[in-house]
Please model this.
Amino acid sequence: MSAAAARTLRIVAPIAVAIVVLAAWQWLVTIHDVPAYLVPSPARIAQTLWQDRVLLVDSLGVTLSIALTALALAIVAGVAIALLFAQSRLVEASLFPYAILLQVTPIVAIAPLIIIWVKDTRVALMLCAVVVAVFPIISNTTLGLRSVDPGLLDFFRMSRATRWQTLTRLRIPSALPYFFAGLRIAGGLALIGAVVAEFIAGTGGNGAGLAYQILLAGIQLNIPRLFAALVLITLAGVAIYLAIGALARMALERWHESELPGAD
Amino acid sequence: MSAAAPVVAVHAVAKTYADGTRALAPVDLIIRAGEFVTLLGPSGCGKTTLLRIVADLLAPTQGQVTWWGDARVPAADPERRLAMVFQSPTLMPWARVAANVRLPLDLAHVAPADAANAVSDALAGVGLASFADRYPRELSGGMQMRVSIARALATAPSLLLMDEPFGALDEFTRHKLDADLAALWLARRLTVLFVTHSIQEAVFLSTRVVVMAARPGRVIADVAIPEAHPRGSAFRGSATFAALCEDLSTRVARAATGDRTSDVIQASP
Model:
């Protein structure tokens, strides 16, 4: 199969699956006459999306801005911590267990505390999302900074490279593929963190995100709107994933196996 | 330190690893300017260990190494520089060929114009002038090794250390690179310490072959290869070549069977 055909297949095949599933869904809901407050049909969801577009797009903006700010903070903090860990085994051995602690503690358990401690709800939600998203960046980048070709490391030593030169010219480029693998995971997690934290906070009003719309729609039995909000969250997650993928491709496609043309 | 001090003098150097492995029994080795010395021996004879000690990448357990009569590798003396070519090309996959060759110059903060000249000169020297803008993955194994050699040559090293650089290549490519390396050595008046387990390669390239044996790693013979340079491919087919290979292979075999009577250092026939 040619590269172009393979690329087309990767786009067309999932879309075909979506069309089949949506058509079956529509058909089943219609022939069984399922009420919209139980399972709305895809057509009904699309209609709701359009009718409530102002409300939903506003909320989407809130959720996305929290998730993306959190992701940016997680990148900065995660890379900084990974660089610290890469400086010495002692530092890594002393602190890595606490990074794991951050990872294994469920966000639903710490979110209430963060929401109580931090006055500004938006900041609190963002911090929750950072807590969830930062770990894959820390662990992958640390691994990458250590995964250096030993021969190249010897070459740098023989060339009397400084610690700084070895870091910027060898360790950081070597870590890039690992960093992007971590970023792909972190992107989805930042969104999940933002949504979960808002569920717990349960605050509405002007700055309400999609989670609040889902919560409210559930209470009001406005199931079509609940689905519509869900669709937007899913699409946002997919968009973040694709954007990170494109970024990774731009950074790595010229040299790394994972992004070479025909790597699939 | 006198002007006549050898490039490298290894005096009673031994290496025992932390797990108790005796990689190297006390070994002596002198390398003088302009020589092409090859460490030849089977796997585990400590030849790579010895090379890494000479490269100052590994500290010996006992004994002493001097570089140009000095107990330390001179830090920033352009006349006294080491460079190494490793078993694999060890290129930076994210950098183009030219940037890879320029790496040691960048690390030493060489002025950009001088560096650019040195890079194009080194690439021309290994016949890859037209590949400067390629990425390493776009090149064959043999070409990647040439880039690695160009990178070492870019600093105009006073001593070039090579650790089985062509071991992973097919025989045709290897013969070609051997011939090119010999030409470079002659043209640039290099001093080379080369490691290999190929007897033919050692004989073809070297002015002197130091034969090593394993368990523990030690030097069992130091054989001069008197054939004049440049050596063409006719040398490979000559009776002299065959006799030298035969002699070296007998010494290696005898050492392997534990016959220590061959431990006499002597000149070749």
Summary: Strands of chain B lie at 8-16, 22-31, 36-40, 62-67, 82-85, 159-163, 192-196, 208-213, 218-224.
